[in-house]
Amino acid sequence: MSAVLIVDDSPSDRALFRHLLTRAGFEVYEVCTGREAMVQARKVQPHVIVLDVNLPDTDGHSVCRALRADPDCAGVPVLMLTVRDNEADVLEGLHAGADDYVAKDADAEIFLARVRRLVRYRQMSTVAAMNEGLVQVGRLLAGIVHEIRGPLSVIRGNAELMKLTLGDDDASSQWIEPIIRSTRLLQVRLEHLMATVRTGPSDLQTIDVAPLVYEAADLFRKGADPRAPKISVITESDPGLPPVQGDAGRLLQVFFNLMGNAHDALQAMHGEGRIVARTFTDRDDQGDWVKVTISDNGPGIPKVHLGRIFEPFFTTKDGGSGYGLYLASEIIQEHGGRLTASNGDHGGACLTVWLPIAKTTEPG
């Protein structure tokens, strides 16, 4: 649900705009002063700010300039409210950084059309910025992986030659096999890393989900700061799970990111806790699924944010990018599944990955 912040000191005007916007499916927040506008804009991160020119503590143009100077709010579109035919207000508002304007007494459909256009603009611009960032990360990662692959292949190749030369009866062979196993594992994980930033369609293959969840948990444990308070990562899986059609690298990215979000929530609360990743099957009216739930015993997700956490660049975390969950959701949708969020009955957040079970081909 898209959020709109109304900044207007007139109760009757706020009531009118609130009625129009809520009826059109928007989530509405209201303030009546410029000072409150800055605080609320940082807090709720609206898709659009509807800003009156005349406010009791300042003018709307000053508020607009302050928004544009604030890194947390600079990208939020501003729709200025003006008096009809007041060209001076319109011009000053545009110079202050407003994205559009509308007369207070404009037709309701005109007002809503301008709000919807700015919402779409906000969504497209944030996704474009995010994609550009990912391109740069992908180039950097591809270079790093390329530099590692060569020496790793040499290590593995020489280890396999040593094994053949020495033979299985040689006592030194016991040291060679772990080297070969480890290099094979590293090569697989490098391929998974490359898949996390690969552009284009996903490389879908028939895979088992549970081993990927275990791999993500193992990587997460090994990457944790040993000096930090203890946060345990527990993996559980039902036996005999059916396979799914998936891109192993991208799914690994999703599981790893979800564990990272749970870890951050626990650290922000008290620094200790538990993350449980459980893999099992389920069925609903849309089909049969392999589900992965990643839950924690942290503070949970505020209800006001549950409907927005998968939006690009929406974050309530200090220093957060706001596109990790959006990317995870997009990846799972590419797999024909979905990513949902809820709070546990006894506290904590639960993110659920739904992946359709692979269709088996009957022998002809």
Which descriptors apply to this entry?
single chain; 364 residues; alpha/beta; 5-stranded parallel beta sheet; 5-stranded mixed beta sheet; 10 helices; 49% helix; 20% strand; elongated
3D architecture notes:
The protein is of the alpha/beta class. The chain is built from ten helices and twelve strands. The chain has helices spanning 11-23, 34-44, 60-69, 87-96, 108-166, 173-196, 209-223, 248-269, 303-306, 324-334, and strands at residues 3-7, 27-31, 48-52, 78-82, 100-103, 205-207, 231-237, 244-246, 273-284, 287-296, 338-343, 349-356. A five-stranded parallel β-sheet has the order 2-1-3-4-5, sandwiched between helices. Strand 3, helix 3 and strand 4 (78-82) form a beta-alpha-beta unit. Helix 5 (108-166) runs antiparallel to helix 6, helix 7 crosses helix 8 (248-269) and helix 8 (248-269) packs antiparallel against helix 10 (324-334). The mean pLDDT is 83.
